[in-house]
């Protein structure tokens, strides 16, 4: 959450407390230029005495609530001899004091040095200010100065703290090789082609301000690599709008918190092979001309298709929407206006919210709806394996000792859950863990088999307890379920299964067409409340997904195999 320009210490703390009281997930509090005594001067030596009289206390209070602090900075940097390490080190040294105080993120809102004045993700325009260096021409320098300063910030922050720097740099800072440093902010965009183009250019983490305070805009903003609610000149606290908008923030924030293991594993995949987290449809469907100019939807990682209901797709001045197949609703009134259109590639797709399936022999547009507050459709590609954690108010609030595997069987598929300490560079030394998950569906035999490998590797702070809750998409209830060759009991209700630590087993959740399988005894969710199911696609808040372990619960770290015997004929 980015606070207003002239905000003060006491009010920022009140905003931070309110996020926690209202159970709206938030990890970062950000300050605009007026945190300094002289805004935009970038002297880095003096906090505003009036607005932030006790910065150390201020930072401590934020950290006690689970927040990190982000400071805005401008493009104030040396113009001369920028290729000299000593020049850039002196520029970095001014930041050492606030880093020692606990600041962990910087928003680089202007180029370095301030010579580029272009709009976001467009062709650069330059000022008449000269960037000089004895070794390079000005035209060469204009393409490398931002990279040099970004490299200096990341390298020296690492030397000073041993941690990964968190830097949000503006898209017009994105000079040569800038994809090496996360993360890129596409500025004041809400959606569209520009962030998708950046993804195609090798930027794994691209996002933009959440300025559309409607359920559709919130749906879009929370399903990107990072979410920024920018209130720098506005009153954008979620609770200052309607109760419905506040609830939309809460539910979408909790869904995002659940998805962190999937986001993080997708980011690791980007690190390994360069595939971005947000993927324009054309990346996987180059044979389909309809995807070439598609800004109204994208793939989030391998499995999730995110639909943005307000965008239009135009190619050569003509709409690419040819025909719409009705699905899930018969009229806009039945969904209270929550109706949109999505382009599904050929194959089997599952509506994330309802579990209903669509088999597309050829790609085409369909119409569908979504739950109240959620803001848009999410479709799941058949074969999907989506690792999820629990809803949290902030990421470090609790460890994911229970991993929820949301599986949508389809042929043979696999996914790797990646985990590390999330803080240091120890992953470069092999300090991380990988769990391989597989899914096999045999339609002739009516069998689904899920394999979970033994967790390979270790890292500091790794959960010492680990069990799994499986949510297997199934149009009909299984007949029988086995874990490691032993048959599991069928528990009458999902509630009885999830809130009793003394049993394991399976139950069928008719509402969302999923078999819920609890592999181990010894744990349960905290006390239930009506309508707050931790298995629902629309998540409850953090306190309803707290896991309670029995003292004598046994840790199970060996590989697991789950087999479901499904009906081979349709159930009438």
Question: Would you write up a description of this structure?
Answer:
GO terms for molecular function: hydrolase activity, hydrolyzing O-glycosyl compounds. Belongs to the glycosyl hydrolase 31 family. Pfam families: DUF5110, Glyco_hydro_31_2nd, Glyco_hydro_31_3rd. Residues 5-69, 74-265 form the Glycoside hydrolase family 31 TIM barrel domain. With 572 residues, the protein is of the alpha+beta class. The protein folds into three domains: 9-275, TIM Barrel (Alpha-Beta Barrel), CATH 3.20.20.80; 279-381, Golgi alpha-mannosidase II (Immunoglobulin-like), CATH 2.60.40.1180; 384-565, Golgi alpha-mannosidase II (Immunoglobulin-like, Sandwich), CATH 2.60.40. Strands 20, 21, 22, 23, 25, 26 and 31 form a seven-stranded antiparallel beta sheet that branches. A six-stranded parallel beta sheet has the order 1-2-3-4-5-6. A six-stranded antiparallel beta sheet has the order 7-8-9-17-14-15. A hairpin with a 4-residue loop joins strand 27 (505-509) and strand 28 (514-518). The radius of gyration is 25 Å and the shape is globular. The N and C termini lie far apart (50 Å). The model is unreliable at 311-335 (pLDDT under 50).
Question: Gist?
Answer:
The chain has 572 residues and is of the alpha+beta class. The chain has 3 domains: 267 residues, Glycosidases (TIM Barrel); 103 residues, Golgi alpha-mannosidase II (Immunoglobulin-like, Sandwich); 182 residues, Sandwich (Immunoglobulin-like), CATH 2.60.40.1180.
């Amino acid at each position: 959450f980015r606070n207003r320009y002239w905000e003060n210490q006491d009010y920022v703390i009140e905003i931070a407390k309110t996020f926690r009281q209202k159970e709206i997930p938030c990890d970062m509090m950000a300050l605009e230029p007026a945190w300094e005594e002289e805004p935009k001067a970038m002297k880095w030596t003096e906090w505003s005495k009036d607005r932030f009289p006790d910065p150390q206390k201020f930072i401590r209070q934020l950290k006690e609530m689970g927040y990190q602090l982000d400071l805005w900075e401008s493009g104030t940097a040396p113009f001369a001899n920028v290729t000299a390490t000593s020049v850039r080190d002196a520029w970095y040294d001014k930041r050492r004091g606030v880093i020692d105080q606990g600041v962990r993120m910087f928003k680089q809102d202007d180029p370095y040095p301030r010579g580029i004045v272009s709009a976001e993700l467009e062709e650069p325009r330059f000022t008449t200010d000269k960037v000089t260096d004895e070794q390079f021409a000005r035209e060469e320098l204009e393409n490398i100065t931002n990279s040099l300063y970004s490299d200096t910030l990341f390298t020296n922050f690492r030397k000073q703290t041993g941690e990964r720097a968190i830097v949000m740099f503006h898209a017009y800072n994105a000079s040569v090789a800038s994809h090496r440093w996360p993360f890129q902010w596409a500025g004041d965009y809400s959606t569209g082609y520009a962030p998708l183009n950046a993804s195609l250019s090798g930027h794994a983490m691209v996002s933009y301000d959440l300025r559309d305070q409607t359920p559709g805009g919130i749906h879009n903003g929370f399903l990107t690599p990072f979410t920024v609610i920018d209130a720098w000149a506005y009153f954008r606290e979620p609770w200052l709008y309607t109760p419905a908008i506040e609830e939309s923030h809460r539910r979408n924030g909790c869904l995002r918190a659940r998805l962190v293991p999937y986001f993080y594993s997708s980011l690791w995949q980007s690190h390994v092979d360069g595939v971005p987290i947000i993927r324009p449809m054309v990346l996987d469907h180059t044979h389909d001309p309809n995807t070439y100019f598609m800004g109204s939807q994208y793939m989030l990682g391998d499995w999730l298709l995110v639909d943005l209901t307000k965008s239009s797709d135009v190619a050569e001045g003509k709409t690419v929407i040819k025909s719409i197949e009705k699905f899930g609703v018969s009229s806009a009134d039945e969904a209270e206006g929550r109706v949109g259109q999505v382009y599904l590639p050929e194959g089997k797709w599952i509506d994330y919210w309802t579990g209903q399936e669509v088999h597309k022999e050829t790609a085409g547009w369909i119409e569908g709806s979504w739950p109240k507050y959620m803001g848009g459709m999410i479709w799941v590609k058949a074969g999907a394996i989506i690792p999820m954690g629990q809803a949290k108010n902030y990421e470090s609030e609790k460890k994911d000792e229970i991993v929820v595997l949301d599986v949508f069987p389809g042929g043979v598929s696999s996914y790797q859950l990646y985990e590390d300490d999330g803080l240091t560079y120890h992953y470069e030394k092999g300090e991380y863990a990988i769990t391989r998950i597989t899914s096999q569906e045999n339609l002739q035999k009516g069998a689904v088999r899920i394999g979970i490998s033994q967790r390979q590797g270790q890292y500091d702070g790794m959960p010492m307890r680990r069990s799994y809750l499986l949510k297997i998409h199934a149009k009909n209830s299984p007949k029988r379920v086995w874990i490691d060759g032993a048959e599991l009991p069928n528990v009458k209700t999902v509630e009885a299964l999830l809130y009793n630590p003394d049993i394991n087993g399976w139950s069928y959740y008719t509402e969302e067409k999923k078999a819920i399988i609890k592999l181990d005894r010894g744990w349960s969710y905290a006390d239930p409340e009506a309508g707050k199911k931790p298995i629902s696609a629309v998540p409850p808040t953090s306190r309803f997904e707290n896991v309670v372990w029995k003292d004598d619960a046994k840790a199970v770290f060996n590989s697991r195999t789950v087999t479901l015997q499904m009906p081979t004929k349709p159930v009438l």
